[in-house]
């Protein structure tokens, strides 16, 4: 497994250990992790800290050029909000652990010239599948349903 | 001027008074303000707290049905990230102070069935115009340029 996706999965597991929604992300610039995070809806009562947003926030303010040389690894297909953040900053590439539990705005990302690679990793999928089965109300809240 | 847009403009002015980027937003549910905020890039070193995101975050976790009955007032046309958050939560209507300083993803919002009304308010426009003229580097950073 790609070590950066493994880190994102570790973030997701950390979130689960905090009774949170198990989605994790890592922002990588030229082979170096500059931000990592996980969904904080439960932990911080947050409506905006999806994993991708948390990783971007933890990376801090970066020059535009840095984002354009970044790859964002995330355990689950990014929703409209997170995809919008990726488009805003022009992140070059997104590696997605799986998109079977949830399919976000991948087509929209590709339409903006962003490289989108979907791994369909069984570990990412199983973590999310089990969570959705046991906490459907939290999951639906997180995607605005 | 619409009192809720006036509140959003007050938020923008508060941001300017904090040496921040002067954009403000107010989230209104059935005539009641449930969240308000302004851009926090400078104040909190934030890459994600645009005004709309700050207002959504300050509203806290809300049921899906609440968002669908909300109007988001914002002094400036929402970027891809903020538009994505609006799409994620299915906010019914967005009232935009002006879109001459910056045109965000209004067409994409309308394509998702969201009502988008642009006021072209001179107060919103002048505040943004003056800021962009005096702080072009901050403004470009905020929109990923």
UniProtKB/TrEMBL annotation, chains A, B:
Keyword Secreted: no
Biological process, per Gene Ontology: nucleobase-containing small molecule metabolic process; pyrimidine-containing compound metabolic process
The organism's place on the tree of life at top rank: Bacteria
Subcellular location(s) per record: Cytoplasm
InterPro entries on file: APOBEC/CMP_deaminase_Zn-bd, CMP_dCMP_dom, Cytidine_deaminase-like
A Gene Ontology cellular-component term: cytoplasm
Membrane spanning residue stretches: none
Sorted UniProt keywords: Cytoplasm, Hydrolase, Metal-binding, Zinc
Molecular functions per Gene Ontology: diaminohydroxyphosphoribosylaminopyrimidine deaminase activity; zinc ion binding
Domain CMP/dCMP-type deaminase: 1-116
Cofactor(s) the protein requires to work: Zn(2+)
Pathway membership: Pyrimidine metabolism
Annotated CDD domains: nucleoside_deaminase
Pfam families with a match to the protein in the record: dCMP_cyt_deam_1
Subunit-level organization: Homodimer.
Protein name: Cytidine deaminase
Species of origin: Thioalkalivibrio versutus
């Amino acid at each position: 497994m790609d070590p950066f996706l493994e880190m994102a999965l570790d973030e997701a597991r950390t979130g689960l250990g905090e009774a949170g929604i198990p989605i994790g992300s890592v922002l990588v610039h030229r082979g170096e992790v500059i931000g990592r995070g996980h969904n904080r809806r439960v932990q911080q009562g947050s409506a905006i800290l999806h994993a991708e947003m948390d990783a971007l926030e933890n990376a801090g303010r970066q020059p535009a050029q840095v984002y354009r040389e970044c790859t964002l690894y995330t355990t689950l297909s990014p929703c409209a909000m997170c995809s919008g953040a990726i488009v805003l900053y022009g992140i070059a590439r997104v590696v997605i652990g799986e998109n079977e539990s949830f399919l976000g705005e991948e087509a929209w990302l590709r339409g903006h010239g962003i490289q989108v690679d979907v791994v369909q990793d069984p570990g990412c999928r199983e973590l999310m599948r089990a969570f959705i089965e046991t906490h459907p109300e939290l999951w639906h809240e997180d995607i605005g349903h």
